[in-house]
């Protein structure tokens, strides 16, 4: 979470003076009248607004990234995220890491409620984690629903049908009988609900400290999965007796929890500083969702290529949600005890360098996710079915205005997709703004600015603030909406004079 230089738990030695630092390169790309970021990077100009291009965004030095990966055990997690156990289930690359992030959240609840420090804010931690779990479950439910709505993927999820004729409980597995009084045909029906044996959530429901929060999480799962033909099987009531997802086979909870921080690790790395648990677990949840989001972006790209704009827009709105979720995950760091966290900072040799060497740039997954999200701007011409004018004409802007103004049924999916893509931009910028504020709150604004005064950091072309303060990625769409709004203002006024009426008629020709 922090703008810091990590010392890896293993021996990672490097001469930092001879390695490339994480940065947004000083080469500024600006918008000009004859090019737009939706088509190509714009030329440099000292008078134009600074813009981050795909080539400006680069990760930290290889040693810093390696230390980050080792500290949070990202390579081992990546093997679990990317394993393919169900070849016919096309949603597995997205849903699996999402479920694993949810399972790590259950472990986080256990860690928080086991915290021996009397000054820890357990009440707020519990509330935040419950809210985070609910947000994750909602996204997982939407992913499952979309998979069942798509004829190409319907029925491919690995589920076990629990309906029986006798309602007899099996001897293996943790099960509870559910009686369904009416199956819609006036006949009594019985079903058996099976609960995951590997997940921590059912165990949390049996512990007096976590019983209440676990129960609320289970009801959140029941509510979120209501529209899906199956449920997760984590102890939720399953009042409809729906099939259960093979959660233990998909998520592999035992393998996942083997990657947690052990007591021996805690003693060796930071002399039993309990905040290491929070930092470690938070970033494992974060990286799991980053991986899922990258897989979602791949699916968005494929669906745009196939001109499946309805499905692509649905995925884009999901990606908008995941960017907001990443910000919610980062905010957990605000609950760490200031003294314990700053002690941890020195125990693991965390070292602030400059603001451009932000800790977030040590996550290779986050860098790739950011780049891919920015790259959506290049899809606008294809969505609008226009070619870029080599002379710099406003073809894209005019096509967008006609699309917005037309209200044609066959074009509604394009409008929804373009709106969702702009929503992703807003969520991405909101994430980086939130990140910078979180760093300042956790360690002080001077540390967040790379040990430079704010007025100096604010002038730096390599500042992280460039990401959230740069101009829009979609200037043609922005101009189209501005022009369309101006047209309606003029149209509704009706033109106060002859020149005004003529101007309105001129605008009508462009819009129509």
TrEMBL record:
Biased composition (Basic and acidic residues): 48-57
InterPro entries for the chain: Hs1pro-1_C, HSPRO1/HSPRO2, HSPRO1_N, Trp/Indoleamine_2_3_dOase-like
Segments forming domain Hs1pro-1 C-terminal: 225-489
Pfam family, one: Hs1pro-1_C
Gene Ontology MF annotations: heme binding; metal ion binding
Domain of life: Eukaryota
Annotated region (Disordered), positions in chain: 1-61
Biased composition (Low complexity): 19-46
GO terms for biological process, alphabetical: defense response; L-tryptophan catabolic process to kynurenine
Domain Nematode resistance protein-like HSPRO1 N-terminal: 1-222
Name this polypeptide is given: Nematode resistance protein-like HSPRO2
Top-level taxonomy: Eukaryota, Viridiplantae, Streptophyta, Embryophyta, Tracheophyta
